[in-house]
């Protein structure tokens, strides 16, 4: 069956035009299209346009996120004050505080999880449209056999990986949040340990998936080449520090993206790269700022000595970190996949 697929794809690519410049990338999804530059200039300027548009669009949501964090601090202060009164009701007031925090955060977290899931789906679907174009362009330059084999292998692997993340990690994330609420409400050690195990399982599955993917690319020789040492070092350091859970793994694959950006000569390649970033950047900002604000809020609330409440806020920040890792990993995986086809033939 695999040989038949390769043969069919080779026959299709043989009939393709010879000039790689004639290939056109599929139009970016509607949400991403709003961030794309109206007139194309250099890649760096176009990328900066996408980033600026995403930041401008995100500012109203930043205000709402800050407002929720202020409300969380207020709830924690109120619980702390009531606990300090004579004849305090004990754990009852802490339970009320946990319920109030959960009520404030569950709706916001649910919308962020949906945004992350939609981003994974959008990136995967756009990749299915873009990768055949890049494969055909590469084949037109003489890499018919290697491009067809690389297309089949990478597409199957990428589809299985993105589907697995969406189908397994997202439900586990919801399970982690539910157990975290139960743990902070009941303060039972068994539930706390189970919550910790679910968190460990989420991060382990995500890391292992990326290790397998980047390992596969390394074996096939995709993650290789030379790039400016200073730029590469800065990119690895930034990526490792910014992205929770998977930053260290993805930083090791960043050379492929830098080298690939240097060899993207076709309009399809540059447009596709910008479109992928445009799909990803808005959810990244939405989830990322909430991750940072919740971590800061948890640290502030911990000062008031209401451990169940501050622990629950910390758990929600950890969930945002895992979700941030998922969406960022999918974006980088797709960028590296595009680089596979651009570097498939020396």
Structure summary:
This protein has eleven helices and no strands.
Summarize the topology.
Blueprint: H1 2-14, H2 30-33, H3 43-83, H4 91-140, H5 144-186, H6 189-219, H7 229-242, H8 247-252, H9 254-263, H10 267-302, H11 307-342
Helix pairs in contact: 1-5, 3-4, 3-10, 4-5, 4-10, 4-11, 5-6, 5-11, 6-11, 9-11, 10-11
- The proportion of residues in beta strands is under 5%
Over all CA atoms, what is the radius of gyration? 23 Å
Low-confidence stretches: 2-22, 222-239, 256-265
The end-to-end span amounts to 29 Å
- The 3D shape can be described as elongated
* Biggest sheet features: none
Mean pLDDT: 75
Secondary structure: helix percent: over 70%
Which secondary-structure class do the elements indicate?
Answer: mainly alpha
Helix-strand topology string: HHHHHHHHHHH
Count of individual domains: 1
Task: Figure out the total of helices.
Answer: 11
- How many beta-strand runs? 0
Can you offer a commentary on this structure?
With 346 residues, the protein is an all-alpha fold. The protein has one domain. 82% of the residues lie in helices and 0% in strands. The chain is built from eleven helices and no strands. The longest helix has 50 residues. It is elongated, with a radius of gyration of 23 Å. The protein starts with a helix and ends with a helix. The N terminus is likely disordered.
Describe the structure using short key phrases.
single chain; disordered N terminus; mainly alpha; 346 residues; 82% helix
């Amino acid at each position: 069956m695999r040989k038949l697929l390769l043969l069919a794809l080779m026959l299709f690519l043989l009939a393709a035009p010879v000039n790689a410049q004639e290939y056109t990338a599929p139009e970016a999804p509607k949400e991403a299209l709003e961030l794309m530059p109206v007139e194309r200039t250099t890649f760096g300027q176009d990328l900066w346009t996408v980033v600026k548009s995403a930041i401008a669009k995100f500012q109203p949501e930043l205000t709402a996120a800050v407002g929720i964090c202020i409300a969380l601090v207020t709830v924690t202060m109120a619980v702390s004050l009531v606990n300090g009164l004579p004849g305090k009701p004990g754990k009852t007031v802490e339970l009320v505080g946990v319920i109030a925090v959960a009520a404030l955060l569950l709706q916001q977290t649910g919308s962020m999880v949906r945004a992350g899931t939609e981003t994974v789906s959008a990136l995967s679907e756009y990749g299915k449209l873009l990768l055949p174009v890049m494969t055909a362009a590469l084949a037109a330059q003489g890499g018919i056999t290697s491009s067809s084999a690389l297309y089949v292998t990478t597409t199957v692997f990428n589809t299985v990986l993105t589907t697995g993340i969406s189908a397994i990690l997202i439900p586990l994330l919801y399970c982690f949040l539910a157990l975290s609420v139960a743990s902070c409400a009941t303060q039972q050690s068994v539930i706390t340990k189970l919550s910790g195990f679910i968190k460990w399982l989420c991060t382990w599955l995500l890391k292992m998936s990326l290790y397998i993917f980047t390992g596969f690319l390394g074996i096939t020789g995709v993650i290789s080449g030379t790039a400016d040492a200073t730029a590469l070092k800065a990119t690895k350091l930034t990526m490792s520090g910014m992205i929770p859970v998977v930053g260290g793994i993805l930083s090791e694959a960043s050379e492929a993206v830098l080298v690939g950006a240097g060899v993207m000569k076709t309009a399809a390649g540059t447009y596709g790269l910008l479109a992928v970033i445009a799909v990803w950047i808005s959810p990244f900002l939405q989830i990322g700022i909430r991750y940072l604000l919740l971590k800061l809020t948890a640290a502030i609330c911990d000062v008031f000595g209401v451990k169940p409440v501050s622990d629950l806020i910390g758990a929600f920040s950890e969930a945002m970190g895992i979700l941030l890792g998922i969406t960022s990993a999918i974006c980088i995986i797709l960028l590296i996949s595009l680089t596979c086809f651009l570097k498939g033939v020396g």
